[in-house]
Specification:
Layout: H1 3-6, E1 9-18, E2 21-22, H2 24-32, E3 39-40, E4 53-54, H3 62-69, H4 82-98, E5 110-116, H5 123-132, E6 134-137, E7 140-143, H6 145-152, H7 168-176, E8 183-186, H8 192-205, E9 211-219, H9 225-232, E10 258-267, H10 268-273, E11 280-289, H11 299-314, E12 323-325, H12 334-346, E13 354-356, H13 359-362, H14 370-382, E14 385-386, E15 402-403, E16 409-410, E17 415-421, E18 426-433
Parallel strand pairs: 5-8, 5-9, 12-13, 12-17, 13-15
Antiparallel strand pairs: 1-2, 1-10, 1-11, 3-4, 6-7, 9-10, 11-18, 14-16, 17-18
Helix pairs in contact: 4-7, 5-6, 11-12
Length: about 425
């Protein structure tokens, strides 16, 4: 083994919390059965989604968090909102999946890169402080900003801020795993997964770590965030299992969801020395951010540039790809932008390279989605095929792609590209070989 191959980065563990299953086995069962994870929300009385339907991780609750997924961290749960809890739980699960016990890696040789959305507290959390800050104006009660600092904030729970900081998943994971190596947090919505993967891989390639946890967590199933999402994006309605139609000509909108996923990355030398099962090799990562002087994002160009960088760094061509795992969520406009970027990237191979969109199973969770989707390709390629996009039947003539649909497609190659893009024009791309 050469020094170069020794620093190759391989994936040895998966921890996943998704609307179609928790853990590698349950998640794969949901994918292989073609099950859509949309259903009536249980953990909130109401969210701004048609019919209060979304991609909820229903089996994750206070009891399972305390007794099963985070039982070694019960004292820390009070400073973890639901997003943080799922993210940390996914990292612990990924370590178990990789066969790595806490303390089995020298503390300075294991680190963490984690992606998350900006986190919001539920309205009831700040209600007491808001009520304290009321004042009488022209006969009506109104919120007085001048009173918030002195009178309102003391009405919040003492550790309120720590519960909703997007860098906290990485902090809790570093403590729980005794991981004193590189640690960073990224908040770039859908693009977060590819970006944390790129940073974590670079830490290993530069010999700053032997093992890295690369993970994401995110939700749009939140009383505040759901309202924001409903304002920014069209949300699909109709029967839950038929709502999501990525890339389909008749797509109507997205579906709000939550998810978390962590991958264990190791240098090939470290993984082989301990006899680890290798699930895939990360060949390269690319990133781009494109917007005009007017601030309007160019998602198509961002996807193209990120994908181009990833393919060039991997030393492969578009025609070499066995498939593309896309970011598409059923958004009438944004799916088309991504498709245009992919067509430009794939060139002459645009009509032949298979494309799949895993959000048709799990919905839109922001930062939480990308690594769940990547895990879907890792698992399906181990079985020799590509999972189909649910509810796809009609090609979008404005930007057609070879979308896998109806039934799984036999994989011609274990090489795939994962793309992710945000409405702000930030994109990441990852080339993986299984």
């Amino acid at each position: 083994m050469t020094a170069e191959t020794a620093r190759e980065v391989v994936i040895t563990g998966i921890g996943v919390f998704s609307p179609i299953g928790i853990g590698r086995s349950a998640f794969w069962a949901g994918l292989s059965e073609g099950r859509c994870g949309l259903k009536r929300i249980q953990h909130a009385s109401w969210v701004a989604a048609p019919g209060c339907i979304g991609g909820e991780v229903s089996d994750f609750n206070d009891e399972t968090a305390k007794k099963e997924h985070l039982k070694t961290l019960r004292k820390s749960l009070k400073v973890m909102c639901r997003e943080i809890q799922m993210g940390v739980a996914s990292a612990l699960q990924a370590m178990d999946d990789a066969g790595l016990a806490v303390g089995s890696v020298p503390a300075n040789r294991i680190g963490c890169d984690f992606g998350a959305n900006l986190m919001s507290s539920p309205p009831e959390v700040i209600l007491e402080g808001a009520l304290r800050s009321r004042t009488q104006r022209t006969g009506n009660l109104a919120f007085d900003y001048d009173q918030w600092g002195e009178i309102g904030m003391p009405g919040l729970e003492p550790l309120w801020l720590l519960k909703y900081l997007p860098n906290m998943p990485g902090c809790h994971i570093g403590i729980a795993l005794e991981a004193h190596g590189p640690n960073n947090s990224i908040t770039h919505d859908e693009a977060s997964g590819g970006l944390v993967l790129g940073e974590a891989c670079n830490a290993i390639r530069r010999n700053r770590a032997d093992v890295m946890v690369a993970g994401v967590t995110g939700t749009r199933l939140h009383t505040v965030k759901a309202c924001q999402s409903a304002r920014l994006d069209p949300l699909a309605d109709g029967p839950a299992e038929q709502r999501l139609r990525p890339f389909d000509r008749e797509r109507r909108g997205e579906a709000l969801a939550e998810a978390a996923c962590s991958l264990i990355l190791e240098s090939r030398a470290h993984a082989e020395a301990r006899g680890a099962q290798i699930l895939g090799t990360v060949l390269s990562c690319g990133a781009s951010s494109v917007a005009g002087r007017d601030g309007v994002a160019d998602e198509a160009e961002a996807v193209y540039l990120a994908g181009r960088a990833a393919l060039d760094r991997a030393g492969v061509s578009a025609a070499d790809l066995g498939h593309v795992n896309a970011c598409a969520a059923g958004n009438p406009q944004r799916d088309r932008y991504e498709a245009l970027g992919l067509r430009k990237l794939l060139g002459a191979a645009a009509d032949s390279v298979p494309v799949t969109a895993v959000k048709s199973y799990i919905g839109s969770s922001g930062s939480g989605a990308s690594l769940v989707e990547l895990a879907a390709s890792l698992l399906s390629l181990r079985e020799g095929y590509i999972v189909p996009t649910l509810n796809y039947s009609l090609a979008d003539e404005a930007a057609p792609l070879n979308v896998v649909h109806g039934a799984a497609a036999k994989a011609s190659s274990g090489l795939f590209l994962k793309t992710s893009v945000t409405r702000m024009g930030q994109a990441s791309a990852v080339v993986v070989r299984v």
